[in-house]
Amino acid sequence: MSSHVVLEARGLTRRFTGVLALSGVDLRLFAGEVHALMGQNGAGKSTLIKVLTGVYPADAGELRLGGEVIHPGSPAAAQRLGISTVYQEVNLCPNLSVAENIFAGRYPRKSAAGFWRIDWSRMQIDARALLARLNLDIDVTRLLSSFHVAVQQMVAIARALSVEAKVLILDEPTSSLDEQEVKRLFGVLRQLRAEGMAILFVTHFLEQMYAISDRITVLRNGERVGEYLKAELPPAALITAMVGRELSAAAGRNEHPNTATGPALLEARGFGRRGQLNPVDLSLHGGEVVGVGGLLGSGRTELARLLFGLDRSDSGELRVAGERVRFDSPAQAIRHGLGMCPEERKVEGIIAELSVRENVALALQARLGIWSYLSPTRQKEIADRFVQALGIKTPDTDTPIALLSGGNQQKVVLARWLATEPRLLILDEPTRGIDVAAKQEIMNEILALARGGMAVLFISSEMDEVVRVSDRIVVMRDRSKVGELPGNSSEQAVYHLIAAGT
Ligand code: ADP
Ligand code: MG
At what angle do helices 120-133 and 149-161 cross, to 10 degrees? Predict the structure, then answer.
């Protein structure tokens, strides 16, 4: 790590109507370092990045690049100065080729027959060279949309590097990548760091943050809490800095795993679907949290979808409270007392333009059918109850859900299913992309629900959460169940079974 400051922000302030998103924030980025920007949802991370990259002007404060005061008026201006960004949402053009995406807006040109034309072959050669720097060898003439999101992200980085970047900024680059892809991205970041680039990086994954970063700046409520070297800030101290108070060690932890016996609420035998899930045996009892441990692609979500009737099984049998059932649609599963929070909150979960109240009422209305319409007053009663019970932070239940933070949106989706009073709730990644404190609250909520008699199937790609909250852990690999472990097992034990299980 060098001691040369490349980019320095002093006293940055940015106000939106009613919100002080940044309040006198300082930041220093050194050449040849990976710098993590940490904070809960709403702390001001994205706003800071947008000010650094010219999306918004600051209301006050100063920005210096290599000692010179700069005023980037747009992302393009910031990029010309050497500050490149990969935003949270990969915002490239899926219907253009990879090469076009890398050079969009500044295609290389050549003179031909007296005209300046786009130099397509130059562009392809340059695109290939840039991607080679990222260890990626793909056909740059293919449409971007034909590649997986991880490749699209690499293309976004290649685009960021296609100008002489001194600073590279990434806002949650790993949220849609699997483990291998994260490794690959980190390999690239390490290489760029070795070349002297200053890298600013936002993530919600603590483990990843510790794996890659050298220095950490923590924001809370729009203010800078501090700047630390990684070694100075162990996880507990980091969380305290982010949250502003100490979280008790017991938060969200299942101290007394429930070893449920007796008749199962749900019993699956040889249950599966060709090409999706190899036949599994699984039982769930009221009052227990059963975690599903497995890597991305292990069949976790496929299991959840089959149980809930989103996909149809083609082998085995399923019983709910002893009764043989067959779900051809979620409506049938809901009538038998099942509920499910799906994985992609943005896609399947929330309806952005509806209010909190309407979002909570959705599943209950579906269960009651169109003949027993829930009046707005009744909807409001139910929504108010859950806003209270889950501590959902919203001005009122008529607020559009889109205005809530990610953690609070997630709680609304949870409330929706709780309102149907399910006997069995399937949670697929209920804590994905939300901050540490909201995670703990949701995990506490899951435990409380189970202790109230509900059966919970809990899927999470964060293994530490699975082992913390579960009474029992079903371990999956390659679309098969490879075993079960008791709830207080270590993460290593789960990984070991994944690696060894057949
Ligand atoms: P983070 O990225 O750390 O989650 P943000 O920078 O997105 O936080 O948000 C900081 C605060 O500023 C939040 O209270 C958010 O609601 C508010 N905010 C961010 N962008 C806007 C905007 N364009 N208009 C109004 N308020 C905004
Ligand atoms: Mg953000």
Answer: 110
